[in-house]
Amino acid sequence: MDLTLDSTGQLGEALGLSEHLGDALWRVDSSGAKPVDAPGGLIVAGMGGSAAGGRLAIAALGPRLKRPLTVADSYSLPGWAGPSTLVLCSSYSGATEETLAAYDDAAERGAPRLVASTGGPLVERARRDGVPVIPIPGGFQPRAAIGYTLVAALEAAALAGAAPSVRDEIEAAAVLAETLAVEWGPGGGEEAKDIARALHGTVPVIAGADLAAAAAYRWKCEFNENAEVPAFCSVLPEADHNEVVGWAAARELARFSYVSLEDAEAHPRNALRAELTAGFAEVGADPVLRLQSRGETRVERLVSLVLLGDLVSIYVALLRGADPVAIPALDSLKAALAAR
Q1: 22, 100, 108, 186 — which has fewest CB within 10 A?
Q2: Would you say residue 77 lies in a domain?
């Protein structure tokens, strides 16, 4: 694969996840955000890569959540949002129209707010209103700032009283990510590259249960944006109640691949379902890959799956001869929306 195709160093940004996790903790502290008693929990308002941290935080916290934590990926907040709910507005650019609308919605409802962004109108509104801002560094693609948005959401959950602090797990995940970046990077072993070679030329369907379900959605989005290919996400056990039927006809339609992301602490029945579902997928998918998370804590294991998917998607882009920074469809869509 031709690494020179990566014109803006997206591979390097993915490999920098360890540093991003550690730096993000400092940036949360620098915001001056204080604990808020929020019986209604935390809402992460954001879109795309800026919302990804919230989705992953839900998985990382899992059964430790004591109050609701949800992602609002639209122009308005859920109907139950109000003064008892902390709202984290996450927009890398600070100009995402849906997130700006959600910020205004939160203000109208009297909800306490927290902002994570590089600047733009969102930070201007937060400064005007005295809302704490977690400053995210500029120069990234929003999806490459995943370490920052994940930590922001995890810390916001703790501030809202929705979950305990998991700072020790974040620090451990940063150490693990540094090790895995060496192992999976361009100068390391072949595991991540071999996965990319196997998936190159296919339409990936990535599945996961429990903690791995959030990672599966991250993989799907990274394949869409980095590799610029269709990709789909499935969640077990739900996929076993409908999607599994479709594999018998898959070879007639396209060349699909199936990636089963698995976690050692998944529910035992979901672990069994992952094994059985991979067997059913073999009828219509080539290849079928089963990949295990790495690490001890929930945050570590989730981060390991995220890092692997980010790197594999970039390697697939390079195999396709595509620059992983290019997102022409998104740019065109935003321009069309802005013109109307």
Answers
A1: 108
A2: yes
